[in-house]
Amino acid sequence: MKNTFKNSLILCGLLLTASMLFGQTMLTTTTLAAAVSxxxxxxxxxxxxxxxxATSTALFIADGAIxxxxxxxxxxxxxxxxxxxxxxxxxxxxHVSGAVVFIIPGAALGGLNGALNVIxxxxxxxxxxQAYLPVISLGVGGGEPTxxxxxxxxxxxxxxxxxxxxxxxxQYPPIGQVVYTSAGTSxxxxxxxxxxTEIDLPYSKYLTGLGMLNGAGGGTDRWVLALYDSGGTLxxxxxxxxxxxxxxxxxxxxxxxxxxxxxxxxxYFACAQGNSGTTATxxxxxxxxxxTYLTKAYGxxxxxxxxxxxxxxxxxxxxxxxxxxx
Length: 326
Fold this sequence. Notes:
Blueprint: H1 2-13, H2 16-20, E1 25-26, E2 28-31, E3 43-45, E4 57-62, E5 68-76, E6 79-83, E7 100-105, E8 116-117, E9 132-133, E10 135-137, E11 147-152, E12 155-160, E13 170-172, E14 185-188, E15 194-201, E16 205-213, E17 222-229, E18 234-237, E19 243-244, E20 251-262, E21 266-274, E22 281-284, E23 295-298, E24 323-325
Parallel strand pairs: 1-9, 8-10
Antiparallel strand pairs: 2-7, 3-6, 4-5, 4-7, 5-6, 10-11, 11-12, 13-24, 14-22, 15-21, 15-23, 16-20, 16-24, 17-18, 17-19, 17-21
């Protein structure tokens, strides 16, 4: 245990100077393209090897309460040769196909602003001061539940990996046993307006996109979808060119440009920014049905430009939509 702790401290000290030189960067993620069948396997198949470099990159496989770090020894296409249970950060074990994989560059492997650490961060934080996010903490010897933390709204928010819930779509606010046409009210979008709704995520979830509940009418207008943290900082968004509204009274899904691992429980805000058209409709929360959530509509938007927001502090009728996070 003494040696394990020593190794972990050495890891936390590696490349401290280098890590401090970087601005805040989100770790790249991919998935396992095939299951890792045993604890002794020394090669893994990735869906994408972008950013994976031999002898200077670590992988973190997040598909269990205790994850596993691996050191990259070689790269051939998407086949990666690895050292298992790197620095005793997570015990080598089998992993399922499709498991989330964090790609951790050498400069992010340690130091005060490192992305792979022993003890989860806590208290207040400044997002722009962190060299890499999220921070992955495995405990001394990698024998404790893994926490993945992000600096959200000026505070460290972290939670244990919830692999059983990773692949489920999360609907918010819950609509219940009614048809979608009965949810809220179908409203014609205002020009250059963004509609935002509070999302209280009860557990950590790997997010690849958002789905917004369209209203009863179609049209040729476009939407960009975005996710903000509790302080109004943008953490993920769909393509800024937007997608044409499609499908009446259905959740129209759009993929994020970059997937986002959302720690929870935490408060977020899901937003739909519309262009200058006024033909598409959106289902909005209204007083008397689901009026316990924070909502706000922001006018005078420049379509395709997403900046920080002043988060809503009250419910305003017909200002926020219904969402699926997936």
